[in-house]
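Weekly modeling sync, notes
Attendees: S.R. (lead), two postdocs, one rotation student

Agenda item 3: backlog of single-chain predictions. S.R. asked that every request posted to the team notebook include the full sequence so nobody has to chase files. The rotation student volunteered to paste the first one in as an example of the format we agreed on. Action items at the bottom.

Example entry:
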Amino acid sequence: MTANQILVVDDEVGIRELLFEILRDEGYAVRLAENAQAARQHRRDSRPDLVLLDIWMPDTDGITLLKEWAGAGQLTMPVVMMSGHGTIDSAVEATRIGAFDFLEKPISLPKLLATVGKALAGGRAVPRAGLSLAQFGKGRVAQELRQRLDQVSRLRTPVLLVGEPGCGFELAARHLHHPNTPWVAPADAQWLVANPFGPLNEAKDGTLFVDAVSRLDKAAQKGLSQLVAKLEKFNTRLVCASTEPLASAAAEGRFDAALCHAISGLTIRVPSLGEHPEDIPELATGLLTMMAEAREVPHRVLTVGAQNALRNLEWAGNLPVLQNVVKTLALTVTGTEIGGDDVARVAREFGLAPREAPVAMAPPSVLDLPLREARERFERQYFLHHIRREEGNMSRVADRVGLERTHLYRKLKQLGIRPSARGEEPPPEG
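Predicted structure, as returned to the notebook:
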């Protein structure tokens, strides 16, 4: 039997060597990393079964590295945080992100071995990390969704998520879920008829997720109503999801009006991929990384051309379709790189069409201008449009137009657009 591999990440050489000796004597295979950069390399090359991660390191602190792995879908192994300056806040923050446990230095031998044993045993029982809402995107739409969810995350009020099929209901629900508490998401609705309090008991102090709530039949709705009345007793957060307005279903007599009122008092809409296409390249890259980590596909790289091609497709079906497209690309491409032609090929196989961009003919006065002058006029209108669209936030404008901020400001200066110090609002279009 192959020994469990443990990666020890600590900038203090004495602690690294001590942990190496202790863990090796216990029969573990041990690798050492002195900083976050070395830890990333070991994580990528050796895929350890457990990481002992110091919080305070000179280049990148342990909390930041933990967030990085969690956000990239690479938290596929248990991580135990270590700190000689540990606080309760640090421990809470680490476990919220996904750490298994927290060890305070100096670490006692019994505590170390007990925690390592539990972490390795727990790691075998926990499925690999999936996509998180952090990978949903960094654009304005995705950020606003996370902000809304964060604002209500401490409430125990039932939450109703609405949106298109495949938009990411479970990602949003898991974002509301508190780590290290029960997560229960029954596969079908029969439990609501047979035993609605069974899953509720399992979800005590945690989260109960009910998908496709608008399609529940009368018997299941009755069971859900009984469950809602007991939520406070079990200290359970109920999150429901629906692809149609519950109020409409209630008005048509297909959904119990009282139940609709009880679960839709706090309603949050989850946007479709089409509403934030700028995030699709990063999302696709994250999915590709996850699949490679799980050894579902070989290691592949999305070229810039492939990323642009994915961004410019209509994503009816949303995340499940994107996931299937990325998997097909990784398994059918002939080289290590996925290019724009590969995306075009797979898009045809999936029946995906390019996004229709509104085409506006330039006024004749512009068409009659010399090319250079016409281009400058268009560019001026283009940047003014995006500055107004992002309400003067130049960071978002830079992300939207695909330019570095320094390059963006240089371009605006060339075009005679001078963002002001107050909200960076451009002058009126002349």
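Discussion: group reviewed the output briefly. The longest strand covers residues 237-242.
Action items: rotation student to repeat for the remaining queue; S.R. to check formatting next week.
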